[in-house]
Amino acid sequence: MTSINILFIGDIVGRPGRKILKNKLPLLKQQYMLDFVFCNGENSAGGLGITAAIAGELLNTGIDGITLGNHIWSQKIWLQQAIHFKQICRPLNAPDDWPGFDHIYINKDNYDVLLISLMGQAFMNPLLTNPFQVIDQKLPIFKEKYCTKNIIVDFHAESTAEKITMGYFLENKVLAVLGTHTHVQTADEKILGNGTAFITDIGMTGPAGGVLGMSKKVAVERAMNLLPAMYNIDKDPFAMLNAVLLTVDPNAGQAKKIERIQIFDHVFE
Protein backbone atom coordinates (compact mmCIF):
# COMPACT_ATOMS: atom_id res chain seq x y z
CA MET A 1 0.00 0.00 0.00
CA THR A 2 1.28 3.44 -0.94
CA SER A 3 1.11 6.00 1.86
CA ILE A 4 1.87 9.69 2.15
CA ASN A 5 2.37 11.90 5.19
CA ILE A 6 0.49 15.16 5.70
CA LEU A 7 1.19 17.64 8.50
CA PHE A 8 -1.44 20.20 9.54
CA ILE A 9 -0.16 22.89 11.91
CA GLY A 10 -2.47 24.64 14.38
CA ASP A 11 -3.25 28.37 14.35
CA ILE A 12 0.00 30.33 13.99
CA VAL A 13 0.04 33.21 16.46
CA GLY A 14 2.27 36.20 15.75
CA ARG A 15 6.04 36.30 15.43
CA PRO A 16 6.69 33.60 18.06
CA GLY A 17 4.56 31.19 16.04
CA ARG A 18 6.27 32.11 12.79
CA LYS A 19 9.70 31.77 14.37
CA ILE A 20 9.19 28.31 15.84
CA LEU A 21 7.63 27.21 12.55
CA LYS A 22 10.71 28.39 10.63
CA ASN A 23 13.02 26.71 13.13
CA LYS A 24 11.25 23.36 13.36
CA LEU A 25 9.57 22.67 10.02
CA PRO A 26 12.76 21.55 8.19
CA LEU A 27 13.39 19.01 10.96
CA LEU A 28 9.78 17.81 10.90
CA LYS A 29 9.92 17.39 7.13
CA GLN A 30 13.00 15.26 7.44
CA GLN A 31 11.81 13.27 10.45
CA TYR A 32 8.38 12.40 9.08
CA MET A 33 9.15 12.49 5.34
CA LEU A 34 6.31 14.94 4.78
CA ASP A 35 4.58 15.12 1.41
CA PHE A 36 2.24 18.04 2.20
CA VAL A 37 2.24 20.70 4.93
CA PHE A 38 -0.74 22.91 5.75
CA CYS A 39 -1.50 25.42 8.50
CA ASN A 40 -4.09 27.86 9.76
CA GLY A 41 -2.69 31.39 9.47
CA GLU A 42 -5.49 33.68 10.60
CA ASN A 43 -3.58 34.85 13.69
CA SER A 44 -0.16 35.08 12.08
CA ALA A 45 0.02 38.91 11.87
CA GLY A 46 0.45 40.14 15.43
CA GLY A 47 -2.19 37.70 16.63
CA LEU A 48 -4.93 38.98 14.33
CA GLY A 49 -5.20 38.40 10.58
CA ILE A 50 -2.61 37.98 7.86
CA THR A 51 -0.79 40.18 5.32
CA ALA A 52 0.93 39.50 2.01
CA ALA A 53 4.37 39.83 3.60
CA ILE A 54 3.55 37.30 6.31
CA ALA A 55 1.78 35.01 3.84
CA GLY A 56 4.95 34.99 1.76
CA GLU A 57 7.04 34.28 4.84
CA LEU A 58 4.90 31.27 5.77
CA LEU A 59 4.86 29.87 2.25
CA ASN A 60 8.63 30.29 2.00
CA THR A 61 9.10 28.06 5.04
CA GLY A 62 7.62 25.19 3.03
CA ILE A 63 3.89 25.49 3.74
CA ASP A 64 1.78 24.20 0.83
CA GLY A 65 -1.55 25.76 1.81
CA ILE A 66 -2.95 28.15 4.43
CA THR A 67 -6.49 28.32 5.79
CA LEU A 68 -8.08 31.36 7.41
CA GLY A 69 -10.98 31.98 9.80
CA ASN A 70 -12.91 34.65 11.67
CA HIS A 71 -9.98 37.10 11.93
CA ILE A 72 -9.41 37.02 8.17
CA TRP A 73 -9.96 40.78 7.70
CA SER A 74 -8.32 42.05 10.90
CA GLN A 75 -5.50 43.36 8.71
CA LYS A 76 -7.52 45.52 6.31
CA ILE A 77 -4.84 45.44 3.61
CA TRP A 78 -5.60 41.74 3.10
CA LEU A 79 -8.82 42.83 1.37
CA GLN A 80 -6.66 43.93 -1.57
CA GLN A 81 -4.00 41.22 -1.23
CA ALA A 82 -6.07 38.03 -0.88
CA ILE A 83 -6.68 37.63 -4.62
CA HIS A 84 -2.94 37.20 -5.25
CA PHE A 85 -2.55 34.05 -3.12
CA LYS A 86 -4.06 30.86 -4.57
CA GLN A 87 -2.41 28.86 -1.78
CA ILE A 88 -4.55 30.62 0.85
CA CYS A 89 -8.29 30.12 1.29
CA ARG A 90 -11.07 31.89 3.14
CA PRO A 91 -13.97 29.93 4.66
CA LEU A 92 -16.08 28.19 2.04
CA ASN A 93 -19.30 29.30 3.74
CA ALA A 94 -18.36 33.00 3.60
CA PRO A 95 -20.21 35.46 1.34
CA ASP A 96 -19.36 35.06 -2.35
CA ASP A 97 -18.12 38.65 -2.59
CA TRP A 98 -15.37 38.11 -0.02
CA PRO A 99 -12.05 38.51 -1.86
CA GLY A 100 -9.76 35.55 -2.36
CA PHE A 101 -10.25 31.82 -2.91
CA ASP A 102 -12.67 29.44 -1.20
CA HIS A 103 -10.53 26.30 -1.57
CA ILE A 104 -7.01 25.15 -2.40
CA TYR A 105 -6.15 22.35 -4.81
CA ILE A 106 -2.56 21.12 -4.87
CA ASN A 107 -1.11 18.44 -7.11
CA LYS A 108 2.55 17.51 -6.71
CA ASP A 109 4.65 14.39 -7.09
CA ASN A 110 1.65 12.52 -8.55
CA TYR A 111 -0.49 13.10 -5.45
CA ASP A 112 -3.19 15.68 -4.86
CA VAL A 113 -5.03 17.26 -1.95
CA LEU A 114 -8.05 19.56 -1.82
CA LEU A 115 -8.05 21.85 1.23
CA ILE A 116 -11.23 23.54 2.46
CA SER A 117 -11.89 25.91 5.34
CA LEU A 118 -15.30 26.06 7.00
CA MET A 119 -16.35 28.39 9.81
CA GLY A 120 -18.74 27.33 12.55
CA GLN A 121 -21.79 29.24 13.70
CA ALA A 122 -22.03 28.69 17.47
CA PHE A 123 -20.54 31.63 19.41
CA MET A 124 -18.80 32.88 16.26
CA ASN A 125 -18.64 36.35 14.75
CA PRO A 126 -19.29 37.07 11.94
CA LEU A 127 -22.12 34.58 11.57
CA LEU A 128 -21.70 32.88 8.21
CA THR A 129 -23.96 30.59 6.18
CA ASN A 130 -24.72 27.17 7.67
CA PRO A 131 -21.47 25.22 7.14
CA PHE A 132 -23.23 21.85 7.06
CA GLN A 133 -25.50 22.91 4.22
CA VAL A 134 -22.67 24.57 2.28
CA ILE A 135 -20.26 21.62 2.41
CA ASP A 136 -23.12 19.24 1.58
CA GLN A 137 -23.85 21.25 -1.58
CA LYS A 138 -20.24 21.95 -2.63
CA LEU A 139 -18.55 18.61 -1.91
CA PRO A 140 -20.02 16.73 -4.90
CA ILE A 141 -19.05 19.63 -7.17
CA PHE A 142 -15.44 19.60 -5.95
CA LYS A 143 -15.18 15.82 -6.28
CA GLU A 144 -16.42 15.95 -9.85
CA LYS A 145 -14.16 18.86 -10.78
CA TYR A 146 -10.91 17.55 -9.28
CA CYS A 147 -11.52 13.78 -9.18
CA THR A 148 -9.68 13.59 -5.86
CA LYS A 149 -10.46 11.54 -2.78
CA ASN A 150 -8.01 13.45 -0.59
CA ILE A 151 -10.10 16.27 0.87
CA ILE A 152 -9.14 17.95 4.15
CA VAL A 153 -11.58 20.23 5.98
CA ASP A 154 -10.31 22.76 8.52
CA PHE A 155 -13.39 23.40 10.67
CA HIS A 156 -12.72 26.74 12.37
CA ALA A 157 -15.25 26.75 15.19
CA GLU A 158 -15.74 27.56 18.88
CA SER A 159 -18.18 24.85 19.92
CA THR A 160 -16.76 21.42 20.67
CA ALA A 161 -20.11 19.82 19.95
CA GLU A 162 -20.38 21.55 16.57
CA LYS A 163 -16.92 20.30 15.60
CA ILE A 164 -17.65 16.72 16.62
CA THR A 165 -20.95 16.85 14.77
CA MET A 166 -19.15 18.00 11.61
CA GLY A 167 -16.77 15.09 11.96
CA TYR A 168 -19.60 12.58 11.94
CA PHE A 169 -21.43 14.50 9.21
CA LEU A 170 -18.42 14.16 6.91
CA GLU A 171 -17.15 10.71 7.91
CA ASN A 172 -16.51 8.53 4.84
CA LYS A 173 -16.89 11.66 2.68
CA VAL A 174 -13.54 13.39 3.28
CA LEU A 175 -10.02 12.45 4.30
CA ALA A 176 -9.95 14.56 7.46
CA VAL A 177 -11.96 17.01 9.57
CA LEU A 178 -9.52 19.02 11.69
CA GLY A 179 -10.72 21.57 14.21
CA THR A 180 -9.02 24.93 14.72
CA HIS A 181 -9.77 28.25 16.47
CA THR A 182 -9.77 27.41 20.20
CA HIS A 183 -5.94 27.19 20.34
CA VAL A 184 -5.90 24.30 22.84
CA GLN A 185 -4.88 20.91 21.50
CA THR A 186 -7.45 18.24 22.35
CA ALA A 187 -6.71 14.59 23.13
CA ASP A 188 -9.51 13.06 21.06
CA GLU A 189 -7.77 12.30 17.76
CA LYS A 190 -9.36 9.30 16.04
CA ILE A 191 -10.22 7.72 12.71
CA LEU A 192 -13.95 7.93 12.03
CA GLY A 193 -15.92 5.62 9.76
CA ASN A 194 -13.76 4.07 7.09
CA GLY A 195 -10.84 6.49 7.06
CA THR A 196 -11.81 10.04 8.08
CA ALA A 197 -9.26 11.49 10.52
CA PHE A 198 -10.69 13.77 13.19
CA ILE A 199 -9.57 15.97 16.06
CA THR A 200 -11.62 18.63 17.85
CA ASP A 201 -8.75 21.11 17.88
CA ILE A 202 -5.18 20.90 16.59
CA GLY A 203 -4.03 23.59 18.99
CA MET A 204 -1.88 26.61 18.22
CA THR A 205 1.66 27.51 17.24
CA GLY A 206 2.80 30.53 19.21
CA PRO A 207 3.74 31.72 22.73
CA ALA A 208 3.78 28.85 25.22
CA GLY A 209 2.57 31.16 27.99
CA GLY A 210 -0.26 33.66 28.06
CA VAL A 211 -3.91 33.12 27.27
CA LEU A 212 -4.26 31.46 23.87
CA GLY A 213 -1.03 33.19 22.88
CA MET A 214 -2.06 36.64 24.04
CA SER A 215 -0.85 38.62 27.08
CA LYS A 216 -1.91 37.00 30.35
CA LYS A 217 -1.71 40.37 32.12
CA VAL A 218 -4.22 41.95 29.73
CA ALA A 219 -6.47 38.88 29.87
CA VAL A 220 -6.59 38.99 33.69
CA GLU A 221 -7.30 42.74 33.70
CA ARG A 222 -10.17 42.30 31.25
CA ALA A 223 -11.63 39.51 33.37
CA MET A 224 -11.33 41.48 36.62
CA ASN A 225 -12.65 44.91 35.64
CA LEU A 226 -14.74 44.04 32.55
CA LEU A 227 -13.20 46.99 30.70
CA PRO A 228 -11.85 46.77 27.15
CA ALA A 229 -8.09 46.55 26.73
CA MET A 230 -6.03 45.91 23.61
CA TYR A 231 -4.74 42.37 23.40
CA ASN A 232 -1.11 41.86 22.46
CA ILE A 233 1.15 38.86 21.97
CA ASP A 234 2.44 37.32 25.20
CA LYS A 235 6.17 37.87 25.76
CA ASP A 236 6.95 34.36 26.96
CA PRO A 237 10.42 33.45 25.59
CA PHE A 238 9.21 29.92 24.85
CA ALA A 239 6.95 28.98 21.98
CA MET A 240 5.11 25.79 21.13
CA LEU A 241 4.22 24.14 17.86
CA ASN A 242 1.00 22.09 17.77
CA ALA A 243 0.17 19.93 14.77
CA VAL A 244 -1.31 16.63 13.65
CA LEU A 245 0.40 14.13 11.39
CA LEU A 246 -1.80 12.15 9.02
CA THR A 247 -0.66 8.90 7.45
CA VAL A 248 -2.78 8.54 4.34
CA ASP A 249 -3.62 6.02 1.64
CA PRO A 250 -3.94 8.58 -1.22
CA ASN A 251 -5.47 6.13 -3.68
CA ALA A 252 -8.32 5.25 -1.33
CA GLY A 253 -8.58 8.73 0.21
CA GLN A 254 -8.38 7.22 3.68
CA ALA A 255 -6.42 8.21 6.75
CA LYS A 256 -4.70 5.25 8.39
CA LYS A 257 -3.34 7.15 11.38
CA ILE A 258 -3.58 10.54 13.08
CA GLU A 259 -0.92 11.55 15.57
CA ARG A 260 -0.71 14.67 17.73
CA ILE A 261 2.57 16.62 17.75
CA GLN A 262 3.59 19.20 20.35
CA ILE A 263 7.03 20.83 20.41
CA PHE A 264 8.40 23.51 22.74
CA ASP A 265 11.40 25.71 21.98
CA HIS A 266 13.16 28.82 23.29
CA VAL A 267 12.61 31.44 20.56
CA PHE A 268 13.44 34.74 22.31
CA GLU A 269 16.06 35.87 24.82
Description:
With 269 residues, the protein is of the alpha/beta class. It has a single domain (4-266), classed as Metallo-dependent phosphatases (Purple Acid Phosphatase, chain A, domain 2, 4-Layer Sandwich), CATH 3.60.21.10. The protein has helices spanning 14-32, 52-60, 78-81, 131-146, 160-170, 216-225; strands at residues 4-9, 11-12, 36-40, 65-67, 88-89, 104-108, 111-119, 151-156, 176-180, 190-192, 196-199, 204-207, 238-249, 254-266. Strands 1, 2, 3, 4, 5, 12, 13 and 14 form an eight-stranded mixed β-sheet that branches. The chain has a six-stranded mixed β-sheet with strand order 6-7-8-9-11-10, with helices on one face. Strand 10 (190-192) and strand 11 form a beta hairpin. The radius of gyration is 17 Å and the shape is globular. 45% of the residues are buried. The mean pLDDT is 95.
CATH topology assignment: Purple Acid Phosphatase, chain A, domain 2
Structural class determined from secondary elements: alpha/beta
Count of β-strands:
14
Which band does the percent of strand residues land in? 25-35%
Which homologous superfamily in CATH is the superfamily?
Metallo-dependent phosphatases
How many structurally independent domains? Answer: 1
Can you summarize this structure?
By secondary structure, the protein is α/β, with parallel strands linked by helices. It has helices at 14-32, 52-60, 78-81, 131-146, 160-170, 216-225, and strands spanning 4-9, 11-12, 36-40, 65-67, 88-89, 104-108, 111-119, 151-156, 176-180, 190-192, 196-199, 204-207, 238-249, 254-266.
